[in-house]
Amino acid sequence: MAGMNDHPRFLRFALRPLAALLLVGAPLGASSPPARPLSSADIVAAAPADAWVAVPPEDLLVVDLEGGRQVVIALAPGFAPVHVANIRRLARSSWFAGITVNRVQDNYVVQWGDATEKKPLPEGIVASPPAEYARALKELGFRAMPYRDAYAERVGHAGGWPVASDGTLAWLPHCYGMVGVGRNLAPDTGTGAELYAVIGHGPRHLDRNIALVGRVLSGMEALSALPRGTEALGFYKEGTPRPAIVAAHIAADMPAAERPAFELMRADSRSFADWLTARANRKDDFFIRPAGALDICNALPPVRATLRK
Amino acid sequence: MAGMNDHPRFLRFALRPLAALLLVGAPLGASSPPARPLSSADIVAAAPADAWVAVPPEDLLVVDLEGGRQVVIALAPGFAPVHVANIRRLARSSWFAGITVNRVQDNYVVQWGDATEKKPLPEGIVASPPAEYARALKELGFRAMPYRDAYAERVGHAGGWPVASDGTLAWLPHCYGMVGVGRNLAPDTGTGAELYAVIGHGPRHLDRNIALVGRVLSGMEALSALPRGTEALGFYKEGTPRPAIVAAHIAADMPAAERPAFELMRADSRSFADWLTARANRKDDFFIRPAGALDICNALPPVRATLRK
């Protein structure tokens, strides 16, 4: 994933650090020679197969934008089951085909939907889903990070997801690349026909005010580099060409040869614990002062594309 | 500023909330009728002249990109005086003219400099500036925010700047739109000839590892919407056209009629205190659950363009 292990260094200076000073992942008291110091990228590369969990094809929304760009979104039925069911149904009814990106607000969101607001929703869509803004923490397999968060009492991970919590309830945080459901005023919660992706510093004040339904796993730049809208809230001006969504499918419905496949690193794996520690304590020839901390939005679980199957 | 008061709502639903439930800026115990509830946007609009501080023209770097786009950066001589002096000298020697954007890494940075690495620096440039990564807190006029931060013991503001601190030292945080100095390995600190702007979730692990020298005040979208580089670290592929910087000036040197002018809201103003409170406690017809908190990177002081003078 972009931005994970990198820093602004001089152009063309892209050597890997050879002598990171912090040992990560080396077993304590091991009598074998010291393990090669591991960066967070090393840890991802070395993670064993059981550190990864495949995103079920039923949970992958594959969005084709005009110009041949593809965005793949992992859906989160564990957090927003009714909204996700709606989104699957919209995809399976080809409803998303022909809608457009209508809003690109810098440092905030890209939002897509039916600009005419007249396209009838397919049969079976739950018109007013429940407010799936939080769920019970206790069945979630939550692993807390030992770092502060500005917004929540606790932050950490469950499965392949970032999670914020008050100790009782748990919710997905509004981080870069997270996908949510545009809605009107409360108590309306949106159907899922209008979606947005976060393209700026995490607008965490939206947490528990809107249903988050997923995370962009690939193709983020097809959204984040779109021209910003010039009107209020970043909407495109009337008459401006809007980037069109050509098609959107659930991966499970696609022919095997065309089906993208991704894995997320499991929050309960040793590799993930090591990865968090390495991310929070970067120290190498470049990093002088390790942060000793990590923001949840800088700790979205590693993703890898796997063979289409 | 984009993204300050907005939320993802249905397309074309852009009514201003009429009945925000949280009173902001209403004097306690006032006997006059309750003040009209103020949103953070209202507070900015109503802020008196003395709540604003003009950015000195000597501290404004005006960067013209090809295609007629302009980016205006407020420099921070209070935090990185030697680096800022270098940048002024580079601008005044027309050194930046003709360099290019070489790196655009999604959710991280846009970086520009001399792709040939052969352009000689002008006379008088300090080749190895001191590591201006932090300064003493005590003379800064620091106003702490009452909210947690993942990375620093305290966060708040001074003048028109966001500030992080350990109680003794103070530094600028790596937030969206902040500008820093590309460097090689420590103890090198970079001259200021290669700069980057943050275009993603604040990479705060860079704090105190690199010199921050400013903040983009306008034209951010000319950087953040650039095509992402396809090579390692987001560098553009060799042979790909790179967005050129046509010119860069210090505003003080520009003809009065062409000179951009900006003001920042003062951290020690009543308006700013009200603005922070309103930002941390959004509640209106849309917001169901106020966050009760605010990340420093979601609290960059309001900016306004003023008449050119």
UniProtKB/TrEMBL annotation, chains A, B:
InterPro entries: Cyclophilin-like_dom_sf (IPR029000), Cyclophilin-type_PPIase_dom (IPR002130). Pfam families: Pro_isomerase. GO terms for molecular function: peptidyl-prolyl cis-trans isomerase activity. It comes from Rhizorhabdus wittichii (strain DSM 6014 / CCUG 31198 / JCM 15750 / NBRC 105917 / EY 4224 / RW1) (Sphingomonas wittichii). Residues 70-252 form the PPIase cyclophilin-type domain. Keywords: Signal. The keyword Ribosomal protein does not apply. It comes from the Bacteria. Residues 1-30 form the signal peptide. Coiled coil: none annotated. This is PPIase cyclophilin-type domain-containing protein.
